[in-house]
Amino acid sequence: MARRRRRRKRSVVDSAARNTAFITDGCNPELVVGAEFDGVFEIPIIKRPEQIIIPDHLVPFSKLEKADPKAFAVCTYENDSDFKDILIDPKLYTRILKKYQGFVSPDCSVYRDMPLAAQITNIYRNRAIGYYFQKHGVYVIPNVRWGDERTFTKKCLPEKVAFLGVERHSIVSVGSYGQLKDRVNRYYFEAGFASMMETLEPTIVLIYGKLPENLERQYSETKFVEFEDWAGIMREDADGGRTE
């Protein structure tokens, strides 16, 4: 019996746009026209919103068509390949994202074993795309992601590059999923988190995953909001445990 071929989901970004993004200038300078920049690396700034809105739920970009826009904000706490289209050609998604409660700026990978230049590049892309959507009327929550000590301390650089482009005393989002699974990962997560809290002093922190209780106790003046991952939401739906 012949096997049925599995159909791949086609990208909405055409090959011309993909080639332009990767061959000519992968950082898409048109995204930051009119932006203000932060620090020596000139990271685009995502402005503090006039009114802070806490989403009801978060849906990964690759699943956004399965979520009610009135009850979800869009995030990218998933593999980079699952949200590559929004990195390549963000303008295709402005109208779509406006329908949702908001958008958490892209969680581009910032691994500790990446060259520092690559870590900084992905922090830049996070803010550039976040700025672009904010400029076009999308409610944007800055996602904060750090790598090794060079990104969240001043041991190597004159500034903490992981936190550039994010205004103080505002709302931010952090992904803890997979960051607490072993001693080393947990150490870097907690060290970077502490540096973020000291530097940005956020009033509200969204957590995609779980926040260690010791951190929540340490920063009792900050409001922390934990969000269940998409798989957990689907399990609750199947069990009839969640309603819109």
Q: Which term fits the overall shape?
A: globular
Total discrete domains: 1
The number of helical segments is: 8
**Structural class, judged by helices and strands?**
alpha/beta
Main sheet overview = 3 strands, parallel
**Largest sheet strand order:** 7-8-9
| E-strand count | 9
Strand content: 5-15%
Q: In sequence order, what are the helices and strands, one letter per element? A: HEEEEHHEHEHEHEHEH
The residue ranges in which pLDDT falls below 50 over 5 or more consecutive positions are: none
Distance between the termini: 43 Å
* Percent helix: 25-40%
Whole-number mean pLDDT: 89
Taking Cα atoms only, what radius of gyration do you get, to the nearest Å?
18 Å
Show the helix and strand layout.
Elements: H1 15-24, E1 37-38, E2 43-44, E3 57-60, E4 72-75, H2 84-88, H3 94-97, E5 103-104, H4 116-135, E6 140-141, H5 149-152, E7 171-175, H6 183-200, E8 204-208, H7 213-218, E9 223-227, H8 230-239
Parallel strand pairs: 3-4, 5-6, 7-8, 8-9
Antiparallel strand pairs: 1-2
